[in-house]
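FIELD: query
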Amino acid sequence: MKFLIVDDDFDSRRLVQKILHPYGYVDVAADGEEGVEAFRTALKDGEPYDVITLDIMMPNMDGQDTLREIREIEKEVGVPAEKAAKVIMISGLDDSKEVHDAFFLGHAISYMVKPIRKQTLLDEIQSMGVTLEKSAE
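FIELD: result
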């Protein structure tokens, strides 16, 4: 299992990384530009991310633009819909416009409002059809 956490807040990245680390490999990016580059590199290396958590409000490139860019890259390289990365949008705002844009414009799978709780995040990932098993280390 391979995860990508894209969030400009260090504490948020660290929390989500701590939650997901027992279940697989976790990369982190501090903003949308880094996230897109990490996504592009993983895809090029044949090791795409299974799940991406993506903060909405970030400098340089916000989460909505990052998600649209990720979906565009998937389309360019011919990733079938069923193999597309599962994306959870995360925000400090419970904003209906952001929720609408995440689902309908960016094809996000889920939307969560901070603060993130461990069991809520794990349940959300499993509800997307992703099986979480603790990796042997």
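FIELD: remark
Strands lie at 2-6, 25-29, 51-55, 86-91, 110-113.
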